[in-house]
């Protein structure tokens, strides 16, 4: 079973939750920009949360499914369609043999859609991950974005995949009645507010800069990519120039180079950095930032470590509840 | 690790899912040895929920899954209000206390063959001119020293090397090159290094090695690791070509 790519879209890559454990060798993590959306899409088709799916960026691909399967589209709304019919996000979808998945374009609610297929995308693991590491050309599908005529292999169905498939076949519709609770779905689009913790060098920035970070909006510049979001906005300045020694940086670290325009590091960030770290975006808010499109505005709000930790724990518990609910549904069908 | 050293260690959060353990305030062989010793110890004694550890010049950053740490080490009766950061930090403090018993690994010496100058080292003459040396002297100085791998970063398998002679220090190029081939050996200020993959960059290029520094199919995926000692051995173009033929 494989996917046949008719049109590749702007930047469609195979991603899982990243390549962990090799940062000490300078190997970047990569993985989905909006990990929450990929995990949710995987759960909705009965995959493990870390299975590989497609990250679709702004302009979507056109994909033919060779065999019947389950799929789910989560994250940004790029108006997905299956054989011309609109596909609702955050649900399980049954797709018949030869059906075609395409995308109508952005709606202003996010810029990256995640598509999971039952069985997951079965490209070979490189360093324990299937994520595409574009610059080193490894992982994913031949280490590169998808192109027309590619045939992307899918993995075999697990019992959980098969049970969900049976559960949805038992319905009248090819769209699941079940979905993700509305309060769990991030509100993408418009002016995004993300929460942050002060970074290690927060205290080295002058008071006016620290106030501006919270008071004024920043705009996502066109040269932003999977590696980092370059933001323009009011200049952010150190009290005095400081010599920095390279140290670890992570997803959501806001560094400020000498020009005063911050860069928030994203999925394809380097493993270490040498610019002063002004802020760290909350893990729970990274999906919101990852879905902010070029030209959109982002605001930052400082919170405590306790609030940050509560937010991510709440999110993780909600995902666990979703997983439990879907497992029960599949089992109930199996037993009936 | 003795009490005095334990007291000099600082920890702080990197966001809500990592702890930075700062083991020194300078870039020195001594600090590097402590970073390496702790990093290796953490690597071999991971706590539940730990994802990975990443050593740098002065610190080791330890990434973790907050919920997994909370569930493994939190007080089940009082889940709310407990901090995964505090719990992870206390695991790391425990590891620091045990560290004294861990024998430090002996450093390896890795020799990297380099074909200096010519098309592989278009800036070798610049380095010689800036430092009032002959190109032969630059090669002799560069290949005569022993370098310490402080950390890996910037690119997969890229080693930050300490120990380059000030006699060949050369500022970066004013205009960076758009593509520097993998294996190129360069100088930037006081630093020397080898580009593991093709990248743009402003370094002065003095030679190229046929050895691969990034090995994505192998475990570990890099030729070098923090704490290694590195020597460069000059080779002729014929030897470079022969090497490349064996392992293209």
UniProtKB/TrEMBL annotation, chain A:
NCBIfam families: urea_amlyse_rel. One of its GO terms (molecular function) is ATP binding. SUPFAM superfamilies: Cyclophilin-like. It comes from Paenibacillus sabuli. This is Biotin-dependent carboxyltransferase. Pfam families: CT_A_B (PF02626). The keyword Transcription regulation does not apply. Keywords: ATP-binding, Hydrolase, Nucleotide-binding. Residues 24-318 form the Carboxyltransferase domain.
UniProtKB/TrEMBL annotation, chain B:
Gene3D superfamilies: 3.30.1360.40, Cyclophilin-like. One of its GO terms (molecular function) is ATP binding. Keywords: ATP-binding, Hydrolase, Nucleotide-binding. Its EC number is 3.5.2.9. It holds the Pfam family CT_C_D. It comes from the Bacteria. Residues 9-224 form the Carboxyltransferase domain. The keyword Phosphoprotein does not apply. PANTHER family: 5-OXOPROLINASE SUBUNIT B. This is 5-oxoprolinase subunit PxpB. The gene is pxpB.
């Amino acid at each position: 079973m494989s996917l046949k790519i008719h049109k590749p879209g702007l930047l469609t890559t195979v991603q899982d939750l990243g390549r962990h454990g090799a940062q000490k060798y300078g190997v970047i993590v990569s993985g989905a920009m909006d990990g929450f959306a990929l995990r949710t899409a995987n759960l909705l088709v009965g995959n493990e949360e870390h299975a590989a799916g497609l990250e679709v960026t702004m302009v979507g691909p056109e994909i033919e499914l060779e065999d019947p399967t389950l799929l789910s589209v989560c994250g940004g709304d790029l108006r997905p369609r299956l054989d011309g019919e609109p596909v609702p996000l955050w649900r399980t979808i049954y797709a018949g043999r030869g059906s075609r998945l395409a995308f109508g374009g952005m709606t202003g609610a996010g810029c990256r859609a995640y598509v999971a297929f039952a069985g997951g995308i079965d490209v070979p693991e490189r360093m324990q991950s299937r994520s595409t590491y574009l610059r080193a050309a490894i992982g994913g599908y031949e280490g590169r974005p998808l192109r027309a005529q590619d045939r992307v292999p899918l993995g075999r169905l697990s019992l959980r995949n098969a049970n969900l498939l049976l559960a949805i076949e038992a319905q009248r519709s090819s769209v699941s009645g079940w979905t993700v609770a509305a309060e769990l779905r991030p509100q993408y689009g418009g002016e995004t507010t993300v929460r942050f913790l002060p970074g290690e060098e927060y205290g080295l920035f002058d008071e006016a800069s620290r106030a501006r970070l919270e008071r004024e909006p920043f705009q996502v510049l066109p040269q932003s990519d999977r590696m980092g979001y370059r933001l323009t906005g009011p200049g952010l300045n150190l009290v005095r120039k400081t010599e920095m020694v390279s140290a670890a940086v992570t997803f959501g670290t806001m560094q400020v180079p000498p020009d005063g325009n911050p860069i928030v590091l994203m999925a394809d960030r380097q493993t270490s950095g040498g610019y002063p770290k002004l802020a760290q975006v909350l893990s729970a808010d990274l999906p919101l930032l990852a879905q902010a499109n070029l030209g959109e505005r982002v605001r930052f709000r400082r919170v405590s470590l306790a609030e940050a930790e509560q937010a991510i724990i709440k999110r993780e518990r909600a995902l666990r509840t979703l997983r439990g609910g879907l497992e029960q549904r599949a089992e109930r069908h199996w037993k009936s | 690790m003795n009490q005095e050293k334990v007291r000099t260690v600082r920890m702080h959060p990197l966001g809500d899912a990592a702890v930075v353990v700062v083991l020194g305030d300078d870039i020195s062989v001594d600090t590097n040895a402590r970073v390496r010793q702790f990093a290796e110890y953490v690597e071999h004694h991971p706590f539940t929920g730990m994802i990975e550890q990443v050593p740098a010049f002065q610190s080791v950053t330890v990434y973790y899954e907050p919920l997994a740490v909370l569930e493994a080490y939190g007080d089940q009766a009082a889940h709310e209000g407990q901090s995964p950061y505090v719990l992870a930090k206390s695991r790391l403090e425990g590891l620091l206390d045990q560290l004294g018993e861990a024998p430090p690994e002996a450093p390896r010496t890795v020799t990297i063959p380099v074909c200096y100058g010519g098309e592989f080292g278009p800036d070798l003459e610049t380095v010689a001119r800036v430092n009032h040396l002959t190109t032969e002297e630059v090669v002799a100085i560069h290949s005569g020293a022993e370098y310490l791998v402080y950390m890996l970063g910037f690119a997969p398998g890229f080693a930050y090397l300490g120990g380059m002679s000030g006699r060949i220090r050369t500022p970066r190029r004013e205009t960076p090159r758009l593509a520097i081939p993998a294996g190129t050996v360069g100088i930037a200020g006081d630093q020397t290094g080898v580009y593991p993959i093709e990248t743009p960059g402003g370094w002065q290029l003095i030679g190229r090695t046929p050895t691969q520094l990034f090995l994505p199919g192998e475990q570990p995926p890099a030729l070098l690791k923090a704490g290694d000692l590195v020597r460069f051995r000059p080779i002729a173009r014929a030897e470079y070509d022969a090497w490349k033929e064996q392992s293209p």
